[in-house]
């Protein structure tokens, strides 16, 4: 299932994801600059978090509180081994029933449930993206 959206239409992309996802664990694939963090920021807001989402590139995980519970946002771009993910407690996070948004999931694929929802973002041009739910 795919959707083409302009960066000014993030709400449309968020609604598409929330209406069609089969999992609360979303795996975000896309090249650097594709808009993964921007889309996650919009998702976190739509799910009711009061604070604005930011990239957890250096901390590996950010937690956002919502009326429905926490959201965990991961960015594994900078990890060099699966041991780093284990050291930060990835297995406990993945077992939680909370929303989990994971950037650069290819770095921790062996820990991921096959029922996780893949979200691929492709750059069409400066402002246009193609969103694929796989």
From TrEMBL:
Is Cytoplasm among this UniProt entry's keywords?
yes
InterPro entries listed in its UniProt record: P-loop_NTPase, T6A_TsaE
* Entry superkingdom: Bacteria
Q: Where in the cell is it found?
A: Cytoplasm
Primary residence: cytoplasm
Q: Name one Pfam family in it.
A: TsaE
Record's Gene3D superfamilies? Answer: P-loop containing nucleotide triphosphate hydrolases
What is the protein name stated in its UniProt record?
Answer: tRNA threonylcarbamoyladenosine biosynthesis protein TsaE
**Gene name per UniProt:** tsaE
């Amino acid at each position: 299932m795919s959707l083409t959206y302009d960066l000014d239409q993030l709400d449309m992309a968020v609604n598409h994801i929330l209406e069609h996802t089969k999992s609360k664990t979303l795996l975000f694939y896309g090249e650097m600059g594709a808009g993964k963090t921007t889309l996650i920021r919009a998702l976190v807001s739509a799910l009711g978090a009061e604070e604005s989402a930011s990239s957890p590139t250096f901390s590996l995980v950010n937690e956002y509180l919502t009326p429905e519970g926490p959201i965990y946002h991961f960015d594994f771009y900078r990890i060099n081994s699966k041991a780093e993910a284990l050291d930060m407690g990835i297995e406990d996070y993945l077992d939680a029933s909370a929303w989990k948004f994971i950037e650069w999931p290819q770095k921790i694929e062996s820990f991921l449930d096959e029922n996780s929802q893949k979200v691929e973002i492709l750059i069409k041009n400066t402002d246009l993206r193609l969103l694929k739910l796989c």
